[in-house]
Amino acid sequence: MEVTFKEILPQQAWELMEKEGAVLADIRDARRYVYSHPQDAFHLTNQSYGKFLDEVDYDDPVVVICYHGVSSQSTAQFLIEQGFENVYSVKGGFEAWERNGLPIETSY
User: Fold this and answer.
1) Domain range for residue 11?
2) Which residues form the Rhodanese domain (predicted)?
3) How far is residue 35's CA from residue 80's CA, in Å, rounded to a whole number?
4) For the chain, does the N or the C end have fewer beta carbons within 10 angstroms?
């Protein structure tokens, strides 16, 4: 059976972070990430992928978030293919995260 990522709601993602120490990987562009991002999110880019591999174990839960929950799916699948075991994509992305009033960090 092929391992695949799971789609979860923003609130479930926050609970995974709080209860299981899940790593939240924000894959949005640098300008938007710097402006505001989910609290404690790792900014995952092609450039930061090596650092991500240094900091995250393959059995750590990883939650991927993007703008609207579409591109995070392909990144989540990519992480599964790299050997990560518990990968999730946030339905509705950062837009839904904000709409649900979950914690964000901002630079404004």
Assistant:
1) 6-106
2) 18-106
3) 29
4) N
Q: Is residue 1 part of a domain?
A: no
Phi then psi for residue 15, to 5 deg, are -65, -40
What would the pLDDT profile of 13-48 be if each residue is shown by its tens digit? 999 999 999 999 999 999 999 999 999 999 999 999
Query: Active-site residues: which are they?
Result: 66
Name the residue type at position 63: V
pLDDT tens per residue, range 59-101: 999 999 999 999 999 999 999 999 999 999 999 999 999 999 9
How many domains is the chain built from? Answer: 1
CATH of the domain at 11: 3.40.250.10
